[in-house]
């Protein structure tokens, strides 16, 4: 019985470590190029690659992103390639959302 409980504990910890959320936590949702910088602390990007399955339909499309409050809009330039972690998108024209993290490549 003691060994069975240890085995079940080991299996459950292994499954938790291999879950998609754990393996994708460090991966950005999108790779994009900045095409416009707005004065309202938003940027317009064109999606180059979507790591997350839910964002694949946005490849080669424009998205308006709000930048996180701890970032400065002055740190971005048109033409920069960025990795973006999202907190979801709203189906507007263009689609819009808030970035939780942005990494300049």
Keywords, please?
single chain; 105 residues; alpha+beta; 5-stranded mixed barrel; 2 helices; 5 strands; elongated
What are the SSEs and their pairings?
Layout: H1 2-17, H2 20-24, E1 30-37, E2 42-50, E3 62-66, E4 81-90, E5 96-104
TL;DR of this structure?
The protein has 105 residues and is α+β, with helices and mostly antiparallel strands.
Structure description:
It is a single chain. Strand 4 (81-90) and strand 5 form a beta hairpin. This protein has helices at 2-17, 20-24; strands at residues 30-37, 42-50, 62-66, 81-90, 96-104. By secondary structure, the protein is an alpha+beta fold. The model is unreliable at 18-24 (pLDDT under 50). The protein contains two helices and five strands. The chain has a five-stranded mixed barrel. The protein is 20% helix and 39% strand.
Instruction: Give the strand content.
Output: 35-45%
- Walk across the major sheet and give the strand order: 1-2-3-5-4
**Level of helix content?**
10-25%
Gap from first CA to last CA: 53 Å
Order of helices and strands: HHEEEEE
Mean pLDDT comes to 83
Using only CA atoms, what is the Rg? 18 Å
> Low-confidence segments, ≥5 residues, pLDDT <50?
18-24
């Amino acid at each position: 019985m003691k060994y069975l409980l240890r085995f079940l504990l080991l299996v459950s910890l292994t499954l938790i470590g291999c879950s998609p959320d754990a393996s994708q936590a460090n991966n950005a949702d999108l790779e994009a190029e900045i095409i416009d910088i707005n004065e309202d602390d938003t940027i317009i990007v064109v999606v180059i690659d979507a790591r997350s399955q839910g964002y694949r339909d946005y490849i080669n499309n424009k998205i308006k992103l709000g930048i996180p409050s701890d970032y400065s809009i002055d740190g971005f330039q048109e033409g920069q390639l960025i990795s973006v972690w999202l907190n979801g998108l709203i189906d507007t024209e263009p689609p819009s959302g808030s970035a939780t993290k942005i990494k300049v490549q």
